[in-house]
Target: GDP-L-fucose synthase
Amino acid sequence: MDKNARIYIAGHRGMVGSALARQLAAHGYRQLVTRTHAELDLTNQAAVERFFEAEKPQVVLLAAARVGGIFANASQPASFIYENLAIETNVIHAAYRAGVERLVFFGSSCIYPKACPQPIREEYLLTSALEPTNDAYAIAKIAGLKLCESYNKQYGTKYVALMPTNLYGPNDNYDLKSSHVLPALIRKAHEAKVNGDATLTVWGTGAPRREFLHVDDLAAATRFILERDVMEGLFNVGVGTDLSIRELAQCVQRIVGFAGEIVFDTSKPDGTPQKLLDVSRLREMGWHAQIGLEDGIRQTYQDYAAARGAQAARQPAHA
Ligand code: GDP
Model:
């Protein structure tokens, strides 16, 4: 791909968008177009159309979305379905109208049925019912990938959909009510260690299995797709192995150095029992993830602890 291509990264301040911006800048892409939420509200159709007419990007990376963990999804389903549908229809349609050649849409592994055979192949999409704790979000993401497919069919565009597994890394959300499990466990373990607590509470039974991908690996996969001139399709992006939430909590506990006990709050939902992606479609093309889970968590924890330290240092001593 031309290093001078004008690439619009929608959602460049989020975890995925900021990783894309780092990845592309590090590999010599010089014309990255970005807008903050305050500058451009992607749920506003007229504003999005004006932006595309004025900027005329050649490539769009659609990483803007309302995202959240199991609690946020279950308690605000209307926000998750409405905002994601609005962003997708506005951006994809405006991109097509402005003659955007290529677009990468980012979804999520929760688009697949709850009772899917594991590992999950792309073909299992829409073969049975969704996990109810996040079906509103999943329906919006399925609509996004169907928009890409439909525009390719009808208008000959080259819009690709990537479905990453659970992500973690820089710029993640550490708010315990809306975060995903990995940042939540990092925060809980850190605070439990600092406070000298006897226990760390993990939601659910600890039995569900999840797969975790460092967001820099997703950004690398995206660059691979762009540079290989992949023009259409749906691609799972993951590491190919999973672990239980209990094992994940033990791993975080070890890395953070929390000496207490892990306890399980079974009044909280488990969600889908397992979510492991089959990543052979991308692997056969020559891409695989590079960042191991332990290394990735260690790096993420260092960043988190450094940010917490800096925050504490900024606060007046007698606040
Ligand atoms: P999911 O992958 O869509 O289910 O989303 P999450 O990352 O929010 O949750 C994954 C699993 O981790 C679920 O079984 C949760 O119940 C479990 N979990 C354990 N402790 C926590 C926590 O503190 N926060 C979150 N979000 N999930 C937790």
